[in-house]
Amino acid sequence: MEPLKPERKREIFEASPAATPQEIAEYEALLAERFTVDPDLPRGPEMLKLRQRKSERLKELQRKLFPETEAEASEEGMT
Amino acid sequence: MADSNPVIKVLKAGDSTKPDPFTIAIIANPALEAPWNTGQFVLDPITFDPKAFDAAAQYICDVLFGRLANQGEQFLADPAIAPKIRVVSLFVEDLNAEDANSLAAQDTDSNLLIARRTVFSPFLQRYGLEADVAYAVSESTKHTRASAWYTSDDDARGGVPFQLDGVSLFHRYYCRIPGTVAIHANATSMTALHEFGHALSSYSNGMVVDLYVDSGPALNCKTGRPIPPKFAIYDTAQNASDPKRDSLGYPSGWKSYHCEMIDPGFPALMDDYWQAPDHIPEHSRHDRITRQFLSDRVRAKIAR
């Protein structure tokens, strides 16, 4: 996964002044982790629950870090 | 619409003595799944922009073989390796926006492009092509960030054995699913080579993970504190840990640590290469174990 460019990080803080570097790091880690799980492997119920929790946290962080994306998605009826 | 007009360009011929030389395919993504996992498809703007696709394919080929200005990482340019690698590009117009023609998706949680990994091989086969690693080039208007899936090796077939900290693994000759990359036509600098590092590596025989997040254990990453002086034994070679994370430093809360750098003055190529202290990301190189692992993996595949 391509690392975030420095200008993109600056844009995040401009658009979302309450964002913290720790939240960006957590968001990036959750995104990157998705690729490390072999999509072919069967997943048990516990794994699926964990995946769901991580997915919800990812969406929560996205809403905070990228409010403009959330607004666009709402306009397009994608939320 | 019929697949009547594929434009296949051989950017590097590779080893013509082999029936199946190690091959990297660069494909103009016909259709985007937007959003990912919804089954909704739209035509990718790259299908109307062959010039942008050709420029992107040339960029990918250039960075793979160490040809960017100031580029430090040259492992594929090794004269024992480079001539053996085949690189082809594929551009097809007028395909329908449908599942079988969609090699990349737009993520719902980010501006990542995501490779639809299982579609690549059947798509390439329609044009008589196969690949070990494949790139889908998109010109999505909003999703511009590249990502990659690791290779799913064919562990039922042969390979070159190696040891990682006493565990027996293989550089497999063949894959079940190639390593796949989704990348934007405007990608620059080390991005295509960074993603190649992921895509060439393997779910079952060693993953090369991102080092700019606090990743879990992998070929190029371990976890624990304090950081031990020894990182890993790869075959018979002892690799040291990077105690300081080159020029970037480990954040205080991290548990992960990395292998020693070949050039500690710059971030590792699988790390945040945008943060090169001289603002020249092309100076980034792989750390020691990643470079050896990827080189050995390519050597195994070109020798099959």
Structure commentary:
The complex is a heterodimer of chains A (79) and B (304). With 79 residues, chain A is mainly α. Chain A has one domain. The mean pLDDT of chain A is 87. Chain A starts with 5 loop residues before the first helix and ends with a helix. Helix content of chain A is 71%, strand content 0%. Helix content of chain B is 16%, strand content 28%. A six-stranded mixed β-sheet of chain B has the order 1-5-2-8-14-9, with helices on one face. In chain B, strands 4-3-6-7 form a four-stranded mixed β-sheet. The longest helix of chain B has 15 residues. The model of chain B has no long low-confidence stretch (mean pLDDT 97). Chains A and B meet through α2 and α3 of A and β9 and α3 of B.
Secondary-structure map with pairings?
The complex is a heterodimer of chains A (79) and B (304).
Chain A: H1 6-15, H2 21-36, H3 45-65, H4 67-75
Chain B: E1 6-12, E2 23-28, E3 31-33, E4 41-43, H1 50-64, E5 86-92, E6 102-106, E7 113-115, H2 117-125, E8 133-138, E9 147-149, E10 152-153, E11 159-164, E12 167-172, E13 175-177, E14 179-184, H3 191-200, E15 221-223, E16 230-234, E17 237-242, E18 256-259, H4 288-302
Parallel strand pairs in B: 2-5, 2-8, 3-6, 8-14
Antiparallel strand pairs in B: 1-5, 3-4, 6-7, 9-14, 10-13, 11-12, 15-18, 16-17, 17-18
Notable characteristics:
heterodimer, A: 79 residues, mainly alpha, elongated, B: 304 residues, alpha+beta, Collagenase (Catalytic Domain), six-stranded mixed beta sheet, four-stranded mixed beta sheet, 28% strand, globular
Q: What would you say about this model in short?
A:
Chain A is mainly α. Chain A has helices at residues 6-15, 21-36, 45-65, 67-75. Chain B has 304 residues and is α+β, with helices and mostly antiparallel strands.
Strand order of the largest sheet of chain B: 1-5-2-8-14-9
Mean pLDDT of chain B: 97
Q: How many strands in all of chain A? A: 0
Shape descriptor of chain B reads globular
Which structural class matches the secondary elements of chain B?
A: alpha+beta
Q: Indicate the CATH class of chain B.
A: Alpha Beta
Determine the N-to-C terminus distance of chain A. Answer: 24 Å
Counting structural domains of chain A, the number is: 1
Would you tell me the structural class of the helices and strands of chain A? mainly alpha
Rg over CA atoms of chain B: 19 Å
Tell me which protein chains meet in the greatest interface and how many residues each side has.
A-B, 24 and 38 residues
Shape estimate of chain A: elongated
Distance from N terminus to C terminus of chain B (CA atoms, Å) equals 38 Å
CATH architecture of chain B: 3-Layer(aba) Sandwich
Count of domains of chain B:
1
Q: What string gives the helices and strands of chain B in order?
A: EEEEHEEEHEEEEEEEHEEEEH
Number of helices of chain B: 4
Q: Please give the largest β-sheet of chain B.
A: 6 strands, mixed
- Total helices of chain A: the number is 4
